[in-house]
Amino acid sequence: MEIRGPRELPARREDIELHTADGFTLVGELALPETSASVATLVTLHPLPTAGGFMDSHILRKAAARLPELADLAVLRFNTRGTTSPRGTSEGTFDGGGAEQFDVAAAMEFVRERGLPRPWLVGWSFGTELALKYGADHDIEGIILLSPPLHRASADEVAAWAGGEHRVVILVPEFDDYLRPAEARERFAAIPHAQIIAVEGGKHLWVGETQTRRVLTEIVAAVNPEALPLPTHWPAQD
Description:
With 238 residues, the protein is an alpha/beta fold. The chain contains six helices and ten strands. The strands form two sheets. Strands 1-2-4-3-7-8-9-10 form an eight-stranded mixed sheet, sandwiched between helices. It has a two-stranded antiparallel ribbon with strand order 5-6. Strand 7 (119-124), helix 3 and strand 8 form a beta-alpha-beta unit. The mean pLDDT is 97.
């Protein structure tokens, strides 16, 4: 069968809860490879909840549906404070990216407690702001930014990634609503080692199977390139 849309491939899926230092419980899901060990972990940070973003925003949901099986990746998704999805509602109230620092910290504490390997933060839109603002505080290999708007992360917070300790991979759609490739190169110039990938024909929401496959391929290229190319059919065709 062709892998497309919401189709879920095999994985060990577990509803989980995260507990923040300021006293809230967040709901989420951990997806692990069904029969093999995880080689790396994607900690996903969803788009703006006040604009409909949540742990089931389609790129993140498809990452969890496909990448445990296709790339041996663990995928952690969760609703930030005050956000609702079919999984449930996380306690607390949306704070515009401020108190969400505790949400990121709770996710990383869960990763440590479970012993999940080689964590990466994968942020989309609002989630990229959280990754930029708070990711360097944690033990991660790098960050992958999908459609970064750079509305909340300051120039100083961007420049703080310049040391080269963490990988920085940035996917910028050609027709993004907020930040397009030329401007992105200027605003991320403070990070000399940042890998900026301009995606031809891309838009902020990465709609369509072609864009979905491109995004998932770039994520895997950064985290576990040996799994490429990603199959388009499952079971894989000879």
